[in-house]
From TrEMBL:
It comes from Stigmatella aurantiaca (strain DW4/3-1). Residues 31-134 form the YchJ-like middle NTF2-like domain. Pfam families: YchJ_M-like (PF17775). This is Conserved uncharacterized protein. It comes from the Bacteria.
Length: 156
């Protein structure tokens, strides 16, 4: 029997011990980084319902019809591959309850490198951590290799 697959979030853990319980709704991610990792895995595994569920009510896409968003996410997922993730920095929640995670997402669309670095904001909504917003920078816009960035040095 082949070993269980590794989690797409690059944690080094098997999927069933890492992001699967979040995707199945068995438990909520304990912090912003775990939510971010689980969302990357959801993109990789086309768990579009989870992506919708983990958008914070303040996220602009929450004002759109859920069916439209799910359809767009499914269509996009068909042409994208997600070979890895690097978390470079994170912050605890600030006075407004916003936690940040800086990550390098490896993404390919039909063989073209669409990888990027994003500084994401997350807030707990009373049930769990949710994605509020993010600032994304394509690799070509970065002043140095993405792994060298921190929240403090991420381009504004």
């Amino acid at each position: 029997m082949p070993p269980a697959p590794l989690c797409p979030c690059s944690s080094g853990l098997r999927y069933r011990q890492c992001c699967a319980p979040y995707h199945r709704g068995e438990t909520e991610p304990p912090d912003a980084e775990a939510l971010m990792r689980s969302r990357y895995s959801a993109f990789a595994l086309r768990e579009v319902g989870y992506l919708w569920k983990t958008l914070h009510p303040e996220h602009p896409d929450r004002s759109r019809p859920e069916a439209d968003m799910l359809r767009e996410l499914r269509t996009s997922a068909q042409s994208h591959q997600y070979p890895g993730l690097v978390v470079m920095d994170r912050s605890p929640p600030d006075a407004q309850g916003v936690a940040q995670v800086l990550f390098f997402a490896k993404v390919f669309e039909r063989g073209k490198d669409r990888s990027f670095v994003e500084r994401s904001d997350f807030r707990h909504d009373g049930t769990g951590w949710r994605y509020v917003s993010g600032v994304l920078r394509p690799l070509r816009e970065l002043p140095h290799p993405p792994e060298q960035l921190t929240l403090a040095t991420f381009p504004r």
